């Protein structure tokens, strides 16, 4: 019986697509549900194309009720991957899924994280700071943006001639390469290899 997971996303869904593709023929892991807070998010079209059920959530129900827990439990979902999900995860959901919610952040946390640090804002800040490298951080989620325990990091160079979109492209490639594999390693209790030195 495969472990069922949910992917939460607010936007394009390129990471969600890679995760769905990675597990499409897996006997061990199944992407059971894609959850989004935006009814027009590109990720919903990707999920539909890949035959994955979708669920749209609204702010009131997400923060004033715990209905999402039942939606997840009724589908036997054991793990949640945040792949560009822009809302803060409420405490009740973290308590319902202890050490079973991970997020991917497009920088080397703890630097360049926290509220408002998402998408191009991150890469602009990395460039403005004159960093010579950046990368990705995959971490467990707690009640604060981007502060949960890190699980994995991967690095890439930043060149002086890079624009923020050059950096974004290089970082996104790292995300696509590593996020599905790290999720699999966590779910199958395999060692997560990769720069947390
Ligand atoms: C990624 O850059 C990820 O690091 C951040 O949100 C973005 C999602 O991009 N959390 P996509 O929707 O998966 O293309």
Calculate Rg over CA atoms.
16 Å
The H/E string reads: EHEHEHHEHEHEEH
**How widely separated are the two ends?**
35 Å
Mean pLDDT over the full residue set = 95
Helix content: 25-40%
Q: What small-molecule ligands were found? A: 5-O-phosphono-beta-D-ribofuranosylamine
Number of helical stretches of at least 4 residues: 7
Overall body shape: globular
Instruction: Tell me the total number of β-strands.
Output: 7
Largest sheet: 7 strands, mixed
Return the structural class: alpha/beta
Estimated share of beta-strand residues: 15-25%
What does this structure look like?
With 197 residues, the protein is α/β, with parallel strands linked by helices. The chain has seven helices and seven strands, in the order βαβαβααβαβαββα. It has helices at residues 14-23, 42-49, 59-64, 67-73, 91-96, 120-128, 164-187, and strands spanning 3-8, 29-36, 53-56, 77-82, 101-105, 133-140, 150-157. It has a seven-stranded mixed β-sheet with strand order 3-2-1-4-5-6-7, with helices on one face. The longest helix has 24 residues, at 164-187. The radius of gyration is 16 Å and the shape is globular. The termini are far apart. The mean pLDDT is 95. 5-O-phosphono-beta-D-ribofuranosylamine binds at residues 9, 11-16, 83-84, 104-106, 172, 175. 5-O-phosphono-beta-D-ribofuranosylamine binds next to α1, β5 and α7.
Give a short synopsis of this structure.
This protein has about 200 residues and is of the alpha/beta class. It contains 7 helices and 7 strands. The chain has a 7-stranded mixed β-sheet with strand order 3-2-1-4-5-6-7, with helices on one face.
